[in-house]
Amino acid sequence: MTLKNTLNKQPKVAVFGDLALDRYIMGDTKRMSSEAPIPVLNATSRRVNMACAANTVMNLKAMGAKPFMVGRIGLGEYGDAFKKTAFAHNISLNYTVSEPEDMTAKTRIMAQGQQIARFDEEYRTPLTPEIRAALLEKLKLVRAKADIIVLSDYGYLTLDEEMISAVNKLWANGVILHDPQAFHAVDLTGVTAITPNLKEAKFILQNTSADNSDTDVATLAAELIEKFKLEYVLFTRSEKGMSLFTADGDAHHVSAEAQEVYDVSGAGDSVVAAFSTALARGYDKIEAMHLSNLAGSVAVTKRGVQTVTWEEVMAFDAHIKARDSASKQA
Q1: Closest C-alpha among 101, 104, 110 to residue 26
Q2: Helices (H), 63-155
Q3: Which residues are annotated as catalytic?
Q4: β-strands 12-17, 66-74 pairing
Q5: Tens of pLDDT along 61-116?
Q6: In the structure, what pLDDT confidence band is assigned to residue 8 with cuts at 50, 70 and 90?
Q7: Kindly report the CA angle at 102 between 101 and 104, in degrees rounded to 5?
Q8: Closest Cα partner for 111 from 171, 17, 53, 32?
Q9: Which one, of 40, 77, 73, lies nearest residue 54 by Cα?
Q10: Fewer CB atoms < 10 Å away: N or C end of the chain?
């Protein structure tokens, strides 16, 4: 498949969902603790990234899109770090709202480049009437700027059914892509499409027996389309690549490109960012799936939660074409 390199057009994509902070404490381990059978980290550096829905925003920006980030930011230590990181990356906070509690942070302990531990500080706070109203006003402003919106659900209760229904009404003539989580099931009727992996699809449908076989995945997709009246389902399938199933019964598949996997953290955000960017640039769904499959392949080669650029995807696409051409001539 030949991809168009349309860097001259900046697509606009909204992202609404659960915002969080990634923290990394890095160093080396040279001894075991005398208190427990665990290594002692000599911490030498720290860094933070925006996480969850905000990682999709970061990937959109890296892809050359103009993202509009909508969500909640806490007023504590982690909220302050989130804001500083957003400013550093020139990500607008104009469409976010503040709330009294702090925000979710995920802290990874890294030794010699390897993750040895992680702890999460989570805030699962239902929307208050005031926060809900404020978010709705932000969404109305964003609707005038972006025809595509990604709903990034990490289970922290920003995307409840009432809010999803409000988004469906606002984007009735647009494209709504829902990126689900495997422990937060809500009614998704009205969204355009969802982008689940196998675990997420099984959770949504309360299916305990399906596997990653073509037959089972096709059955799950058909059930999701029927249950939520979707236009299509984009299935991410790990080593089997990706599959796209439409309400008309069409099925399209793209194989995964063999890569040395360092870290799968955040790869799903890279995939949905690439897919929505491609749609906003005018690619059809099949081309967008191919592009997002390449983005996912690039993402897993990076340590930690990292972004993928449009240039990296195009370079990888060129590499694959050259490899396949050389293979045919051999």
Answers
A1: 110
A2: 77-88, 129-143
A3: 269
A4: parallel
A5: 999 999 999 999 999 999 999 999 999 999 999 999 999 999 999 999 999 988 99
A6: very low
A7: 125
A8: 32
A9: 73
A10: C
